[in-house]
User: Fold this.
Amino acid sequence: MRLQVDKLTVMRRQSAAVDGVDMQIDAAELVALVGPNGAGKTTLLRTLAGLMSPQQGSITLLGTDITGLAPEARVKRGLAYVPEGRRLFGALTVAENLELGCWCHGERDLGRVLDLLPELAPLLERPAASLSTAEAQLCAVARAIAANPVVLLIDEISLGLSPAAAGRLFSLLPELVSTGVAILFVEQDVGRALSVADRLYALDRGRVVAAGAPGELLVHQAFRGFELGD
Amino acid sequence: MSSALANGALSGGLIGLAAAGFTALWRLTGVLNLAQGALMVLGAYATWVVAAALDAPAGLLAALLIGALIGYVLQRGLLNLLLGHPGYLALAGTFSVGLALDSLATLLFANDYRVVPSAITSTVITIGPLHLLAAGLVAFCCATLGTGALAYLLSQTHFGLALRAASIDRDAGRLTGLPVPALFGVAAALSAAAATFAGGLLSLTGPFTATDGNQLLVLIAAAAMIGGAGRLWRAFAAGVVLGGIQATVGYLAPAALADAAAIVILLVALAPRALEARTASDGASGLGGLS
Amino acid sequence: MSGFLNSTLTALFLYIVVAQSWNLIGGMAGYASFGQVAFYGVGGYAVALLMLDASLSFWVALPLAAVVAGAYGLLLGLPLLRLRGEYFAVATLVAAAATQALASWQPAFTSQGAGLTITTVGTRQTTPYLGAGGFTLLFAGLALLSVCLVAALTHTRLGYALRVVRDDERLARAVGVRAGATKLTAFALSAALAGLAGGASAFRLVTVTPGQMFDPTITVLTIAMVVLGGAGTVLGPVVGAIVLTALTTAVDAVLPASRDLVLALVILAAVVFVPRGIGRGGQRVRLPAYLRGPRPPQHTTLLR
Assistant:
C-alpha cells in the first residue's frame, strides 16, 4: 500500500471539514477525488500534504506514519502535492522552479521531467509569472514530478483550463502512472474523472459517500446528485 | 575636512555591511531585526575579548561565529513563530532581544569605552590631501568583501535561490520540499553575522561602549531604508554616505547634530516611498529582488 | 498611604496613560509607532521649559505641553503617516532618535549635559511640588482621562473610521473615509496623551535629561503593555499596565541591576505566548491559524 489514510478528521471553524475518511491508494493507481464544492476535497489534500493538521486519524506512506511530519519532510519521503492555484515562484524562471523541485534529492537533472513534458523546454528561461494558465499548470505538475514522488496529489487539475489543455494533462497521467507513481487528483467534472481514473472516491460533507471502480460507481446512489459532464 | 569626510565614509562601510545584512533579512523574511545594532556591539565585545587572548583575526572569526549562532537561534526560536502575525510583534521582539543583549553587555563589561590595542590602530596613510587611518581602510575593505560575500551567497548560489523561492511563497516552498524554517534560520544567521563581523571591525578601528547599540541601529535602519528592501549594495552605499555626512557634520558642529543630519536625509529619502505606498499595496511581494 | 504604594500606583497610572496613547495609533489605527517616546519627551521638556523660562504655573504648562506634543505629532505625522507597515515603524523609531539628538544638542535643553531642573522650592517656584500623594492623584486623573478618551473614541465616527483604516485602508478610501485626516487626528491625539504623561513625569522627576526623557525602552515597554493586554481594546492596555507594573516592581525589589534584561525577556514571552493579548485568550503562536484573509499567497503553516 503506497498511501493509507485511516479515520482522518480535520476540523475547520468548529465543524469537521473532513470527517473520518478512510482511503487506500496502491502503486501505479490513478485515483480521482470527486464531490461538490465544500465537500472537503481540498482540505483532505492539504492535510495529506501537511499544510493542515488532523484532529484524529493517521496518514501512512509506504508503511511509515507521516501524520506529524512537516510538508517538506513528506516531500522527501515521496509525497508531492500540486496545490490549488499552482503557487509557482512567479519571479523565478521555469528552470529555477523545476530545479527547486529537485531540492529534496539534490540531483539537478531536468532531463527526465522534460522527457515527460517536452513542451516546457522552450519555456525554461521565462519567468513563471508570465506563463499562461495551461503552461503554468504543466509547470506546477513538472515541479512536483521533479521531486521523484511515489505518491502525487493534484488539486483541481483542470480548473480554468481549455478542453485541449485539460486533455493534454489527462493524457499525461497514465504515462506517469506507468512509471509506478500513484496519483490522487481532484476533478470537478465527474464524467471526465470516470473516464480517466482507475478508481474514484466521492466525498460529500467531509465523508466518503462512495468508492470504487468507475463501472461500479455509475449506478451508485450517491452519484445521482452530481452533475455528470458531457 | 576632506580627511574627516573620507574617514567617516570608511567607518560608514561598517554600518553599510550591517545594513546589508539587515536589508537582506528584511527582504527574505519581512522582518526588520531591531537587534542589529546590539549585535554589532556584541561582535565588538567578542572581538575585544578574543583579540586580547589570541589575535585580531581570531577575534573577528569569533564575532562571525557568535553572530551566526545568535541569528539562527533568534530566527528558529522567535521570528519563525511570529510570521503571519502583525509585524510590530516581530519588531517589539527583536527590539527586546537588542535590549537584552545591551543590558547583558552593560552587566558584564560596564559602560566604559573599550578599544582593541592593535598595531595598525594609529597608523595614518597619506594619499594626496587625505590622511586616512590604516585600520579604517583595512576595515572598510573587509566590510566590502563581507557585503560581496553576502550578496554572492544570496543571489548566485543554489542556496540563495531556495531562499528567494521560500520568501516568495513559504507554503509553496515547503510543498516543493524546501526546509523553509531552516533556510530562514540560515538567512538570519548570515544577517546577524554581518552585524557582529561589522562590530568586530568597529572594535579594531576605534573605541566603543555597551550603550552604542541604539545609535548604531538608527544608522543601520536608516541606511537599509534608503537602500530599500533587499538592495544590499545600495544599503552599503547608503551606510558609506551616512558615515561620511555624519563625520563631516560632526567636524563642523556638535556630534548630536550629526545624528539629526543623518536622519533628515533618511526622511527625505523616504519621501518617494511614501508616495509609492499610496498607490501600491504593502507587503513583501511588492518589493524588489535581491541585488 | 505609604511611599511604596504611592510610587507603585503612580507608575501604574503613568503606564496606563502611555499604553492608551500607543493604543490610539497602534491598536486602533493599526499604525505601530516605534517613536512614541518622542512625544513623551517633548511633553516633558515643554513643561520644564514653560515652568522655568516662562514662569508658568504647572497647571497651565501641562495642558500647553499636551498641545505642543500634539502639534509635534501633526508635524511628524504629515510625512510619516504616508508610510505603511515596517517603513512607518522604523521611520518613527528614527524620528524619535532625531528628536533626542536635537534635544541633546540644544544647549537650552540640557545645560551642558546636566539636564534641566524645575524650580520646586524657594521664592522662584511657580507651583509647589505636589508630593507623593499629589502625584498619585494627578496620574490617576490622567489615566482616567486616557481610558475615557479611548472608550469615547471607539463609539464615535472617528473610532469607526480608524478601524476601517486599520482593516483595509483602500477600502476605507473607497467608502469615503478620509483616511489621511483620520490617521493624522489619531496620531496627534496619541502624541498629546504621551505629552501629558511626559509633562507630568517631568514635574515629578524635577530634573529632566534627554537620555531619560527619550529612552527608547519606554516605547517598547508601552508596546509590550498593549500587546499583553490586547491591542485596539479599551481595557486591554489597562490590564497590560497592571501586569507590567507588578513585574517591574518585583524586579526592582529583587534584581534591580538586571531590570532591562528581565523586561526584555518578559516582552519576548508576551510576544510569543500571548500575541493577541491576555483578554482574547492565551493562544500560542505555533497553533496553526487556518485561512487568514483572502490575499494570495496564503501562508497557512507556521514555521516550526
